[in-house]
């Protein structure tokens, strides 16, 4: 894998999803070039408390990049280049279960990959490297997130599996019914390969799904989801998200990722 030099600009990174294009006000815009091409946008670096935070809208600030075209490798590599150790990955998502109502937060612990054709590893040889995906999200960050959401009285689910579809189309009713019957909680288009790529670089990742709608096969009287509906609900919840992120970032320990020097050491090399 290509080596890199840390710019030491930020400790925590935040990816912005659909409807979430701006996070901090007083920022430095930083252009990062990577061996994998250009990230989705410039990185916006500012402070929250005593921590430097890098923000990147994964679709670009004008939502010009659809999910299947995002350069996930460049986005994650750029975060690492800036010095980031922990990544927070909020995303708009559809609910697959009746009890998870639109407006709820789901702190993700697993994913199901239903994408295709995405560049999803930094390890392309000549030595084949196999990084475990058994526990894709950081349990340490998950517990901090659950505690913070409950203190803020935000409706939150402590765990959830997200099924990641390729996009840009939404699911058919048959697909949606299948996902629901499998017991998966949330559906989204961007958590994979973002999360696994971060783990390959030994960055802890926290996945936060913001339920914006019920997916189309959940109930017989649920109208098919539209992009406009997703954005409307997501934007109405942005205040909660920003408050949550500001409070969470303040309590994240100022230390290296707990995966540093562990993920690759425990990987299989063939």
Tell me the span between the first and last alpha carbons: 15 Å
CATH superfamily: Nucleoside phosphorylase domain
Main sheet? 11 strands, mixed
Within the CATH hierarchy, at the fold level, what is the topology? Answer: Rossmann fold
Q: Portion of residues in helices?
A: 10-25%
The helix tally amounts to 6
Radius of gyration: 18 Å
CATH architecture: 3-Layer(aba) Sandwich
- The rough form would be described as globular
DSSP strand tally: 13
- Briefly note the structural class of the backbone: alpha/beta
Estimated share of beta-strand residues: 15-25%
Low-confidence stretches: none
Task: Characterise this structure.
- The protein is of the alpha/beta class and 270 residues long.
- It has one domain: Rossmann fold.
- The chain has helices at 72-81, 139-151, 173-181, 191-200, 227-236, 238-251; strands at 12-16, 28-30, 43-48, 51-57, 86-95, 105-107, 110-114, 129-130, 156-157, 161-165, 186-188, 204-214, 268-269.
- Strand 10, helix 3 and strand 11 (186-188) form a beta-alpha-beta unit.
- The longest helix has 14 residues, at 238-251.
- The radius of gyration is 18 Å and the shape is globular.
- The two termini are 15 Å apart.
- The model has no long low-confidence stretch (mean pLDDT 90).
């Amino acid at each position: 894998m290509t080596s890199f030099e840390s710019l030491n600009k930020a400790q925590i990174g935040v990816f912005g999803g659909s409807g979430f294009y701006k996070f901090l006000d007083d920022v430095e815009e930083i252009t990062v070039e990577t061996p994998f091409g250009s990230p989705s946008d410039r990185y916006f670096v500012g402070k929250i408390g005593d921590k430097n935070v890098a923000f990147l809208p994964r679709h670009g600030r004008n939502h010009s990049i659809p999910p299947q075209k995002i350069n996930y490798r460049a986005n994650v590599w750029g975060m690492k280049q800036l010095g980031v150790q922990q990544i927070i990955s909020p995303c708009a998502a559809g609910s697959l279960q009746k009890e998870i109502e639109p407006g709820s937060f789901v702190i993700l612990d697993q994913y199901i990959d239903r994408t295709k054709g995405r560049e999803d590893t930094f390890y392309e040889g000549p030595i084949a490297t196999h990084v475990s995906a058994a526990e894709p999200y950081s349990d340490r960050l998950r517990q901090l997130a659950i505690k913070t959401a409950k203190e803020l009285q935000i409706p939150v689910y402590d765990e959830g599996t997200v099924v990641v579809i390729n996009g840009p189309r939404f699911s058919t009713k048959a697909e949606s019914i299948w996902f629901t019957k499998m017991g998966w909680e949330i559906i989204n288009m961007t958590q994979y390969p973002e999360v696994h790529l971060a783990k390959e670089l030994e960055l802890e990742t926290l996945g936060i799904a913001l339920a914006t709608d019920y997916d189309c096969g959940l109930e017989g009287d649920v109208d098919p989801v539209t992009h406009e509906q997703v954005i409307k609900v997501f934007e109405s919840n942005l205040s909660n998200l920003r408050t949550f992120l500001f409070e969470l970032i303040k309590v994240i320990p100022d230390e290296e990722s707990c995966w540093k020097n562990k993920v690759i050491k425990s990987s299989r090399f063939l």
